[in-house]
User: Which sequence fits this backbone?
């Protein structure tokens, strides 16, 4: 026998099919383990080089064949054949291989020179498709002909419609991987033609729609829709955030089971985190309710409620559009649509309305009126004069769920009211207006009469007829003589016209005795639950409390292994990965040969201004320190808003009496496309099981990448410019837009956005535009930003860091320390104190760093913190005592902050001062500056000068130069707000420094001053800055240069508008 592709030896001692000819392989995979080898019968070994497939004819091949080094024959393994379901029969002349399943012959061979040989080139071999991998020519032609379907190819072959297809069989005996990847579609979901439930509440379908671009009048963005499977009765609940779903669902299920006296057996929802979480599952487990889920990305399996969502939104859109009702009333429209479809749509199989199937009664629709139609609301409260109108105009918003009344919008008051005394104009005053004579219509056509048959109850609606008794839970009694007297007195107060009306009523027959419902308002103290001093706990407050404490984890894990054991953090991580998928951040690819950046999870608890944990945030970040410059990144700089810019915007809003709002871009960096080719590792704990060695190729920026902030800023900048915004010339994070004389301004701080306008509609339009482009988290009015607590009051705006201050005091163990009235004593100048006792450098630096951040809203501690910061390299005990003095001052003033009053001027003015040779270490002077917009302090500094001044005048001149720099920047920034300022006043208390700025002649005593400080003189001559003298007593910058006595310090602190927030209440 000679080695070849068709002649093989059947060997009972061979462990695998193997050969030594590499040229025979049609497909081949190299063996990665160089230690694998085969032992021959003579004791020698041959290395296994690889594994592949060998073609033995035009249509057949043998799979799983080893390529063995130095092997001179082709061997078929008997054991491998047996594992494939065959039996081998050896005789003295031949060998036969039979199928074990049916005993039929698969192929046979002959005995030749003591070896059993099979030659697959001979027809006698009888090749079997199950033994060897059959490469069907039909499948080859399927691929050649652009993957046309097998059925179509079979028709072409059978009808002989083409030439060239002969002796083929087109049979789809296996799936084509390429066709599945390119053509596969979802499964067919047929409509149900049978009832699968037998009673109400047996199965509830639920889903959430939203977020809606416009906030509803109640501040909602989402709608929770619940549909009963048996009756198709629908309930809609409106939510401000998806996190409210859990509490709303629990309350609904408890009320539904109580009011219907039926148990809910099952609920069905999608896989959203608002439904699929530990808290909901625990509640359902306690109630004995089974939770069913639709398959991921298969909304058809939850089609009952999905179609109901579409119906509700389509009907609401139609009703809003008929009379051009503002879109902020979308929730009222959806609620009215839900009220209608429960009473007018017939069940497809049971042929009854949802209302009848649920309650057993036919619905009454006589009280229905056109949504958005004009109406006239009777004024029942006291009118200003006898000739004031008795009715005001409004429009219909729907039907109240718990009273027999309409919900209407009062145009005069701008409020939604509930009333039954209404007259409708359903033509909205068109030329086709119909005049209706109430004497010619039935009683049921009158709105107030028809309302008697309105069904009330937001969970279980019930229609009460006139003879029905009222609920037993309401105190009722017939009117007494005192009541009638009070009623008559109230009527008399309305004026003479009302008196005539009363007399006419008295002349008519007495009406039947009416039933009046009264509500007890005063309760005995022993019947009140809880602490009276804490006020009333409303449902919304309780829901917010439960949201913070019951549905989030309060522990921040350090490692991903710990987080994977906590369901709340697993949910947070899954939400982060869902954002990646939604934004198409990466694609999974084989590992390249270039640099791959690692990834890690960062876990943080988001808190509000009161320190309450509101959200678990899991962030997947890249290990940017592993990036290679020029390969993984190029440009990295991204502008960030300065705190002075934010304070300027706050002062501008206070001056123009408009409110600022804030919004947050969810996973902002994931929106910024990157130009470089960057690869990162798969998320720890969430590696793909099929491709564990693959990596992720980024198409969008990832947190932690050096170029991520720049990519996000460019993405947001280009979007805003495309929407007619202008970039600030001095501050690239400020974007402005002017429309009809109204200025809209927004300040960007990475993914946090502050915005406001003198026109409220501009803010609504901006919110809508941003929501359409990015996934936003609307936070409403600006209240908590970058650690600042912002209170926008009637008389001005107050910013503080009260929560941060209290946390700071607590962290450094100073909560019970004795309060101090000033942050530093009058002898507060300290030196190196080289002989003093050293203290913990790390703890000292931590204190200084924390206090420096607090200086952003506490200018009163700026000087003392900066002086203590000079000794961070080798702090001594005396320096630590000075820092603790600052903390003791904070204990006495934890609620202090900056007040921006309304109504003041908006003139830019600066103060500069210096403390000549104040530093005991190197005798350098300290510069102090502050800048105001009217009475609003927006910028300040306290800084040691870089060179030793030879005179007081020089020190003051250098300080004035530093103040000039800040004033010029603010002057340029204010141009973006529409203010073109010139001759900005700079107040200095040193006459010599003022003369140096005014006199261009160099004197012998001033020529040594560095030339860079003389630009003050240049801008003085240009008219940009004008230096004025101010008395030392009125020099507000004095507080930033040297320690002051208590009286002077408190006076200057008050002049800076640093006030106690407790005095503003």
Assistant:
């Amino acid at each position: 026998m000679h080695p070849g592709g068709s002649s093989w030896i059947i060997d009972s001692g061979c462990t695998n099919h193997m050969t030594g000819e590499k040229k025979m392989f049609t497909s081949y995979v190299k063996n990665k383990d160089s230690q694998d080898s085969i032992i021959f019968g003579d004791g020698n070994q041959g290395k296994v080089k690889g594994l592949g497939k060998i073609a033995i004819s035009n249509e057949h091949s043998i799979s799983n064949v080893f390529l063995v080094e130095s092997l001179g024959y082709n061997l078929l393994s008997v054991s491998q054949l047996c594992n494939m379901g065959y039996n081998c029969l050896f005789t003295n002349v031949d060998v036969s291989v039979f199928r074990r399943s049916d005993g039929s012959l698969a192929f046979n061979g002959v005995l030749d020179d003591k070896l059993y040989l099979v030659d697959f080139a001979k027809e006698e071999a009888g090749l079997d498709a199950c033994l060897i991998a059959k490469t069907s020519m039909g499948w080859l032609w399927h691929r050649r002909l652009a993957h046309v379907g097998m059925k179509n190819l079979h028709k072409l072959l059978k009808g002989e419609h083409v030439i060239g297809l002969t002796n083929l069989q087109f049979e789809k005996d296996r799936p084509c991987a390429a066709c599945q990847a390119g053509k596969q579609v979802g499964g067919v979901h047929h409509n149900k033609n049978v009832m699968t439930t037998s009673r109400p509440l047996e199965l509830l379908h639920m889903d959430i729609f939203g977020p809606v671009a416009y906030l509803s009048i109640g501040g909602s963005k989402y709608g929770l829709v619940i549909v009963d499977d048996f009756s198709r009765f629908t309930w809609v609940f409106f939510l401000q955030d998806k996190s409210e779903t859990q509490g709303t669902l629990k309350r609904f299920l408890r009320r539904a089971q109580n009011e219907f006296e039926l148990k809910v057996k099952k609920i069905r929802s999608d896989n959203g985190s608002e439904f699929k979480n530990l808290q909901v599952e625990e509640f359902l487990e306690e109630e004995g309710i089974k939770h069913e889920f639709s398959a991921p990305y298969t909304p058809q399996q939850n089609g009952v409620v999905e179609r109901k969502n579409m119906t509700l939104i389509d009907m609401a859109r139609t009703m809003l559009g008929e009379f051009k009702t503002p879109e902020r009333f979308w929730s009222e429209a959806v609620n009215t649509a839900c009220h209608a479809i429960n009473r007018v749509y017939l069940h497809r199989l049971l042929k009854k309305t949802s209302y009848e199937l649920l309650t057993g009664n036919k619905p009454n629709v006589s009280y229905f009126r056109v949504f958005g139609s004009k109406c006239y609301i009777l004024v029942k409260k006291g009118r200003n004069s006898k000739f004031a109108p008795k009715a005001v105009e409004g429009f219909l918003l729907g039907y109240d769920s718990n009273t027999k009344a309409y919900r209407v919008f009062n145009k005069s008051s701008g409020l939604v009211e509930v009333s039954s005394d209404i007259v409708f104009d359903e033509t909205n005053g068109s030329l086709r207006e119909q005049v209706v004579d109430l004497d010619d219509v039935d009683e049921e056509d009158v709105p107030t009469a028809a309302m008697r048959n309105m069904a009330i109850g937001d969970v279980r609606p019930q229609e009460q007829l006139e003879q029905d008794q009222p609920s037993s839970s309401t105190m009722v009694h017939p009117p007494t003589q005192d009541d009638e007297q009070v009623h008559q007195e109230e009527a008399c107060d309305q004026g003479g016209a009302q008196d005539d009306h009363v007399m006419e009523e008295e002349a008519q027959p007495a009406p039947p005795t009416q039933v009046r419902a009264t509500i007890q308002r005063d309760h005995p103290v022993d019947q009140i639950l809880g602490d009276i001093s804490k006020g009333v706990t409303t449902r919304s407050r309780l829901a917010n409390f439960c949201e913070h404490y019951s549905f989030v984890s309060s522990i921040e894990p350090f490692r991903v292994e710990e987080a994977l054991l906590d369901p709340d953090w697993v949910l947070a991580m899954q939400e982060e990965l869902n954002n990646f998928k939604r934004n198409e951040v990466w694609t999974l690819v084989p590992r390249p040969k270039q640099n791959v950046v690692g990834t890690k999870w960062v876990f943080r608890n988001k808190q509000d201004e009161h320190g309450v944990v509101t959200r678990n945030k899991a962030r997947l970040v890249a290990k940017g320190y592993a990036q290679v410059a020029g390969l993984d990144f190029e440009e990295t700089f991204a502008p960030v808003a300065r705190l002075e810019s934010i304070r300027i915007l706050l002062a501008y809003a206070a001056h123009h009496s408009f409110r600022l709002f804030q919004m947050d871009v969810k996973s902002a960096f994931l929106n910024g496309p990157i130009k470089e080719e960057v690869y990162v590792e798969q998320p720890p704990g969430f590696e793909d099981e099929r491709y564990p060695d693959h990596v992720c190729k980024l198409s969008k920026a990832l947190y932690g990448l050096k170029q991520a902030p720049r990519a996000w800023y460019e993405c947001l900048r280009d979007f805003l410019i495309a929407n007619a915004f202008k970039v600030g010339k001095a501050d690239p994070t400020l974007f402005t837009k002017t429309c009809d004389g109204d200025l809209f301004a927004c300040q960007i701080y990475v993914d946090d956005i502050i915005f406001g306008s003198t026109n409220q509609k501009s803010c609504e339009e901006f919110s809508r535009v941003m929501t359409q482009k990015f996934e936003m988290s609307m936070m409403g009015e600006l209240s908590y930003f970058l650690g600042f607590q912002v209170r926008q009051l009637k008389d001005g705006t107050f910013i503080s860091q009260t929560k941060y201050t209290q946390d700071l005091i607590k962290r450094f163990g100073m909560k019970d320390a004795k309060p101090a009235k000033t942050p530093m004593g009058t002898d507060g100048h300290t030196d190196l104190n080289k002989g003093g006792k050293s203290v913990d450098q790390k703890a000292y630096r931590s204190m200084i760093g924390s206090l420096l951040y607090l200086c952003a809203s506490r200018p009163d501690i700026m000087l003392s913190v900066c002086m203590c910061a000079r000794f961070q390299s080798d702090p001594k005990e005396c320096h630590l005592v000075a820092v603790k003095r600052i903390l003791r001052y904070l204990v006495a003033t934890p609620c202090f902050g900056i007040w921006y009053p309304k109504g003041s001027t908006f003139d830019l003015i600066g103060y500069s001062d210096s403390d000549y040779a104040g530093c005991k270490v190197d005798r350098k002077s300290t510069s102090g500056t502050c800048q105001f917009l009217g009475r609003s302090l927006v910028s300040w500094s306290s800084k040691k000068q870089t060179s030793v001044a030879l005179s007081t005048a020089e020190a003051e001149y250098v300080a004035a130069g530093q103040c000039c720099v800040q004033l010029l920047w603010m002057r340029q920034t204010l141009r973006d707000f529409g203010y073109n300022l010139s001759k900005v006043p700079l107040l200095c208390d040193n006459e010599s420094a003022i003369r140096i700025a005014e006199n261009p002649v160099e004197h012998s005593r001033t020529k040594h001053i560095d030339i860079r400080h003389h630009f003050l003189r240049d801008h003085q001559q240009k008219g940009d800055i004008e230096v004025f003298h101010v008395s030392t007593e009125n020099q507000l910058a004095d507080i930033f240069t040297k320690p002051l006595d208590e009286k002077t310090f408190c006076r200057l602190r008050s002049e800076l508008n640093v006030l106690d927030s407790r005095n503003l209440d």
Summary: Confidence is low (pLDDT under 50) at residues 123-135, 430-448, 464-551.
